[in-house]
Amino acid sequence: MQAFIDRHGVGDFAHLVDADGSLWERFGIVTQPAWVFVNDDGTTETLVGILGEDGLRAEIDALVSR
């Protein structure tokens, strides 16, 4: 995992290791890739599938503008 983070330069935000699958279960994730966005009020939104840079930026912008 650390090699992936280093290679892709994504070390600016939290990364979680889910060794026992409990996080996947909590967020209803059944496949990778998956993204879980945490709103200011603590609610979450789970997206499953590939998000390119533009898609990820759009999701973040939408969260920030709420």
Q: Could you characterize the architecture of this molecule?
A:
The protein has 66 residues and is α+β, with helices and mostly antiparallel strands. It has 3 helices and 2 strands, in the order H-H-E-E-H. It has helices at 2-8, 22-27, 53-64, and strands spanning 34-38, 44-48. It has a two-stranded antiparallel ribbon. The longest helix is centred in the C-terminal third of the chain and has 12 residues, at 53-64. The N and C termini lie far apart (32 Å). The mean pLDDT is 85.
Structural topology:
Elements: H1 2-8, H2 22-27, E1 34-38, E2 44-48, H3 53-64
Antiparallel strand pairs: 1-2
Strand adjacency order, main sheet: 1-2
Secondary-structure class = alpha+beta
Task: Kindly state the percentage of residues in helix.
Answer: 25-40%
Largest sheet entry = 2 strands, antiparallel
**CA-CA gap between termini:** 32 Å
Strand content: 15-25%
Question: For the CA atoms, what is the radius of gyration?
Answer: 13 Å
Secondary-structure element string:
HHEEH
Count of helical segments?
3
Shape descriptor reads globular
Mean pLDDT: 85
Poorly predicted runs: none
Number of strands: 2
Defining traits:
3 helices; globular; 2 strands; 66 residues; alpha+beta; two-stranded antiparallel sheet
